[in-house]
Amino acid sequence: MSKSFLEVDGLSKVYPDGQGGELTVFGDIRFALEKGEFVCIIGHSGCGKSTILNVLAGLDEASAGNVVMNGKEIKGPGLERGVVFQNYSLLPWKTTLNNIVFAVRARWPGWSKEKVKEHSERYLKMVGLDHALNRKPSQLSGGMRQRVSIARAFATQPELLLLDEPFGALDALTRGVIQDELVKIWEETRQTVFMITHDVDEAILLSDRIFLMSNGPNARIAESVKVNIPHPRARSTIFQNPAYHKTRDYLVDFLVNRSGSALPERDGSPKFIEPAKGVAQSKPASAETESESDTAARAVNA
Amino acid sequence: MASLNMRAAILSISFLILALGLWEMATQPPEAQTGMTEYEMLMGGAEQESRVPPPSAVIKLAWAELSNPFYDAGANDKGIGIQLAYSVYRVLTGYLAAMAIALPVGFLIGMSPLMYKALNPYIQLLRPISPLAWMPLALFIIQDSDASAIFVIFICSIWPMLLNTAFGVANVRQDWVNVARTHELGPLRTAITVILPAAAPTILTGMRISIGIAWLVIVAAEMLVGGTGIGYYVWNEWNNLDLASVIFSILMIGVVGMLLDLALGKAQKLVEYKE
Ligand SMILES: Nc1ncnc2c1ncn2[C@@H]1O[C@H](COP(=O)(O)OP(=O)(O)OP(=O)(O)O)[C@@H](O)[C@H]1O
Ligand SMILES: [Mg+2]
């Protein structure tokens, strides 16, 4: 049996419930990620998404179960896993550039000063911040700070990127712009990404697969939904793809009607679902295919 | 309209002139000497000498002292600059020694809840003791008045630095510690590159409080141990009934205290950051 890049096996988290008993936030979480996959996880607030992500990051410990990456069990944090926190977590006494330099230096201690600087600047340029190198985080807007944070995570080229609601605190406009940037960086780097979001559209735009989590206590990752939309994707054109609507309807239905009762397969792994299987689409979005899928979308809506 | 600063400066100077004027008037010698009271006769007419001197006399003395602050004409006649230098030297020596202990120990207490719990009772017990209460013990053990004064400074400046360091270190945002952890920084590098800068404003606040207290205490300590220093100088001039010198040195104590505080204030600005 071929092993996946990342394997999560029987993860659970138990807290004392304050009355002498125990509260199982989530239990027997099982899933696998393949190299180069972008996976989002959606679930109602409090089901334990952040806890799972922090266990993957090595910042939190699970009550049971284990995580194996590249055949090695994860114990504690490591540079091969990069984290983008919801509140950016930039070091406020360092400039934008030095926040990245700090990370790059930690990743490659042997690099020369020039090489570190050049590498850091390249990633800041990717997120369009090459004009703000010498500003402190307090002098940046929320959107700009999150861009720095994303640049920092990508700059260290981790094998697995963990993003906890990276756009949660941003307004809709800024969020859209940065989503596009994230798509662009990811197309360039094809890193493995595990991301938490509450935004169904964001999840479809970015993911290859979407994990759906049932409500806690005792939450599970019930389903793994394939997003059958080819890369590269763009926020402005993805709506024209009929697969988009099928997928979106499926996700919303789960979150509204089924998240209370949904269960994974008997063996504990998430049910694999392809809501848009066989829907007419295949080629990447060129001008031609756009109009094609446009027609298809209208046909579906009719 | 003049700027706020301008108006404040004008007002400040007016207050100064007003206060000096009142002081000058209040200390004028009586116009006509209509014979001595019985008390004055007993005192041999010493009243003239022991009256509070007017500001003009103090300014004249200040001018003379400050134009040659470092003269040294024997044990009991040294320039104000020399006396202040002795005091500053003692303060800085005691202060730096306190820093050398308080910062690492504060770090340790801040990082380790165990150490915090273990050491906290002693700190709470020792902290409220007036630093001068240590003086007899210090004199007995150290057998040297100069070193005893330095020890008293050490003991009084250690607490604010220690507690602020511990507090600052313990309250570094977990997010920043997590950044260090996800970048696999070792304990030492985490302490230097993340915890120290994050806690620096709190630590500097403690250091600023400490230098203020140290400067307050050195005057009293030098009055006790004698020999040299601004505290000794004030006491000595009082014994000489030279009140102009007493007033002048009081002002110099204020000036130096202000400069020390200013220096630490500047350092504080350097390490401050906005979140
Ligand atoms: N120290 C604790 N003691 C008890 N329960 C805790 C503790 N920490 C977290 N929890 C519980 O664990 C659950 C999962 O928290 P987590 O932050 O992982 O949720 P989440 O899915 O990320 O939610 P959100 O979408 O709101 O961010 C919550 O229901 C919370 O109440
Ligand atoms: Mg969360």
TrEMBL record, chain A:
<dbReference type="InterPro" id="IPR017871">
    <property type="entry name" value="ABC_transporter-like_CS"/>
</dbReference>
<keyword id="KW-0547">Nucleotide-binding</keyword>
<keyword id="KW-0472">Membrane</keyword>
<protein>
    <submittedName>
        <fullName>Nitrate ABC transporter ATPases C and D</fullName>
    </submittedName>
</protein>
<dbReference type="GO" id="GO:0015112">
    <property type="term" value="F:nitrate transmembrane transporter activity"/>
</dbReference>
<comment type="similarity">
    <text>Belongs to the ABC transporter superfamily.</text>
</comment>
<dbReference type="GO" id="GO:0005524">
    <property type="term" value="F:ATP binding"/>
</dbReference>
<keyword id="KW-1003">Cell membrane</keyword>
<feature type="region of interest" description="Disordered">
    <location>
        <begin position="263"/>
        <end position="302"/>
    </location>
</feature>
<dbReference type="InterPro" id="IPR050166">
    <property type="entry name" value="ABC_transporter_ATP-bind"/>
</dbReference>
<dbReference type="InterPro" id="IPR005890">
    <property type="entry name" value="NO3_transporter_ATP-bd-like"/>
</dbReference>
<dbReference type="Pfam" id="PF00005">
    <property type="entry name" value="ABC_tran"/>
</dbReference>
<dbReference type="InterPro" id="IPR003439">
    <property type="entry name" value="ABC_transporter-like_ATP-bd"/>
</dbReference>
<dbReference type="GO" id="GO:0005886">
    <property type="term" value="C:plasma membrane"/>
</dbReference>
<dbReference type="GO" id="GO:0016887">
    <property type="term" value="F:ATP hydrolysis activity"/>
</dbReference>
<dbReference type="InterPro" id="IPR003593">
    <property type="entry name" value="AAA+_ATPase"/>
</dbReference>
<feature type="domain" description="ABC transporter">
    <location>
        <begin position="6"/>
        <end position="240"/>
    </location>
</feature>
<dbReference type="InterPro" id="IPR027417">
    <property type="entry name" value="P-loop_NTPase"/>
</dbReference>
<keyword id="KW-0067">ATP-binding</keyword>
<keyword id="KW-0813">Transport</keyword>
Automatic annotation (TrEMBL), chain B:
<keyword id="KW-1133">Transmembrane helix</keyword>
<comment type="similarity">
    <text>Belongs to the binding-protein-dependent transport system permease family.</text>
</comment>
<feature type="transmembrane region" description="Helical">
    <location>
        <begin position="213"/>
        <end position="235"/>
    </location>
</feature>
<keyword id="KW-0406">Ion transport</keyword>
<feature type="transmembrane region" description="Helical">
    <location>
        <begin position="95"/>
        <end position="116"/>
    </location>
</feature>
<dbReference type="Pfam" id="PF00528">
    <property type="entry name" value="BPD_transp_1"/>
</dbReference>
<dbReference type="InterPro" id="IPR005889">
    <property type="entry name" value="NtrB"/>
</dbReference>
<keyword id="KW-0472">Membrane</keyword>
<dbReference type="GO" id="GO:0005886">
    <property type="term" value="C:plasma membrane"/>
</dbReference>
<feature type="domain" description="ABC transmembrane type-1">
    <location>
        <begin position="84"/>
        <end position="264"/>
    </location>
</feature>
<dbReference type="InterPro" id="IPR035906">
    <property type="entry name" value="MetI-like_sf"/>
</dbReference>
<keyword id="KW-1003">Cell membrane</keyword>
<feature type="transmembrane region" description="Helical">
    <location>
        <begin position="149"/>
        <end position="172"/>
    </location>
</feature>
<dbReference type="GO" id="GO:0006811">
    <property type="term" value="P:monoatomic ion transport"/>
</dbReference>
<keyword id="KW-0813">Transport</keyword>
<dbReference type="InterPro" id="IPR000515">
    <property type="entry name" value="MetI-like"/>
</dbReference>
<dbReference type="GO" id="GO:0042918">
    <property type="term" value="P:alkanesulfonate transmembrane transport"/>
</dbReference>
<keyword id="KW-0997">Cell inner membrane</keyword>
<protein>
    <submittedName>
        <fullName>Nitrate ABC transporter inner membrane subunit</fullName>
    </submittedName>
</protein>
<keyword id="KW-0812">Transmembrane</keyword>
<dbReference type="GO" id="GO:0015112">
    <property type="term" value="F:nitrate transmembrane transporter activity"/>
</dbReference>
<feature type="transmembrane region" description="Helical">
    <location>
        <begin position="241"/>
        <end position="264"/>
    </location>
</feature>
